[in-house]
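User: Hello, can you help with two protein structures?

Assistant: Certainly.
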Amino acid sequence: MGLVIALNKGRILKECLPILASCGVEPVEHPSESRKLIFDSRCGQHRLIVTRSADVLTYVEQGVADVGITGKDTILEYGAGMSFYERLDLKIGLCRMMTAAPVGFAAPTGVLRVASKFVNIARSHYHSQGCQVELIKLTGAMEIAPVLGLADCIVDIVDTGNTLRANGLEAMDVICDISTRVIVNRASMKTKFADVQTLVQQLAAVVG
């Protein structure tokens, strides 16, 4: 068996499968048509694991997977203290991590209440700005937090901004640009160097 590759389910999986296929890495069954989460490749040289974003990091760090493909947001939010190499930007899943608030929002003089799924990213951003914040962890529908009075503003991934506008919010500060990255287990980088290097070079050639 060659490389075990952990893939972030959802949008990233949909966008990265054609890129992997261009490199000769294609699952025997399409993940969207199967309830399986582990797939052998058609070439028989690789195995693909389909999992949640944060778990991609864990599988790679622990050596269950040699290579992982996930978003930069996941790496920034959950990857602190983890040990792996970030090798390539696939230039897909493009979006931005931003702050957003109700239109015409004026920041309070005291503690700013911030709702986000990405509390570590939010904490780092506001601390760098010298702002005192109360972080409120939410796992979805961040946009309604200011509307319901739960938070003053939010930190979230913004693509088109349509959901923000539909809920009376506007995007404010860009925290960072987000795209999909290839990460590699440190031990695999040594023991499977040729296989890892070949895959990374093939992927780089496809995405330009």
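That covers the first. Now for the second protein you mentioned:
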Amino acid sequence: MLLDYIKQPWPWYISGPLIAVVMYLLLKQGKDFGMSSNLRTMCTILGAGKSSSFFRFDWKTQSWNLLVVLGTAIGGFIAHYFLSDGSAAKINAESIADLKELGIIDQLQGYLPESLFIFNGSLFQFSILSIGGLLIGFGTRYAGGCSSGHAISGLSNFQLPSLIAVIGFFIGGIIMVHFLFPLIFA
């Protein structure tokens, strides 16, 4: 019975407080949580400090965060292959209808539309994935972190730049979904 409960999506009143407890414990340890900062740490480990001062820092102080990335990857693997009931994501019917109208999905299996995220060799899909990846990488560096890091870690530290970044993420998401998405996939 417990395993059946674990396999279901967890409600906000369970997952939210768990995230808050983790953030509290990190703050008590004087650590800032963030996934995108691990890219800087990995580049430093691989020797990027020889060509850029940005990568010259004591990466060992961030080694704990590399374990977070490893745990996230292992946890995702375990959750997908052993703790998932295999059912499709429960997404609003209107959202699915809108995605079908744009030709993005014919049916949704899992959390990601396969027509966008499983590479089929088309130049259009390659362009969308490449441009999107570059924009996300540039935006993450320019904003000083990813949307999750600012929203979870930055806001819990009462950082004004994180509040501004999160507001920007929401505005950008609204513009993308309501104006650019229909133009790109029309």
